[in-house]
Amino acid sequence: MLPAGVAYNGFGNAIAGMGADFRDIDNDGRPDIFETAMFGEGLPLYRNLGNGQFQDVTGTAGLAALTSRSTAWGVGVFDFDNDGNKDLFTANADILDNSMELAHRPFALPNRVFRNLGNLKFEDASSKAGPSFLVPAPHRGAAFGDLNNDGKIDAVVSVLNGPPEIWMNRSGKKNHWIILKLIGVKSNREGLGTKIKVTTSLGTQDNQASTAGSYNSSNDKRVHFGLGSAEIVNTIELTWPSSIKQLLKNVRADQILTVTESAS
Question: Does the pLDDT at position 2 exceed 80?
Fold first, then answer.
């Protein structure tokens, strides 16, 4: 961790890491790290520089000011508005139920969502997510996936001593999308670990088939891409865990596409 630049934040402080997600946030082909942490620490974002090196870009991304007064647990890096840039979701609550008495800050907190503006810049979009989204609760884990197969990523958040919250994504933008359901043959049946690159007229994006991430949670195994205004995916490049490479061309957007691993 120390040689990679992720043992400490940009101020040289260790972080009480809760959850983490590892995905390409700036569309440069390298997965970055977004981590949840405790009140006063900020929620760090580490940009992948390549060759196993990372840089803390929390401040320049605008996240230091937005998150320094939050304690968060579950986390997801997904493109919630399908504009081609992955956004950030955090499930928030303090650690102790008597935090008000001990530290004069509330135990229950609302979840938050940060919209990716591009170029590793973010804005707090929580106030636009609906009035119920702003209701505080003792949140912990968070899992993500398209629950109703409409091409928009939804969230399920666990609540201490209560039923989970199910957040259905009602984003009104008419951006396009594609979801890949993988079937491994030589690789594992779920295709977990498959690296995927999609190219459209707007550029390229990378993702990886994985259910891991967040905090004590498991995500949808299918792989989602927001495509913005692009109606066609020019190419989909898959590198399966078996090292088999597969190329799909001129794929229609706005569908859940089943891809079976090729023989070679």
Answer: no
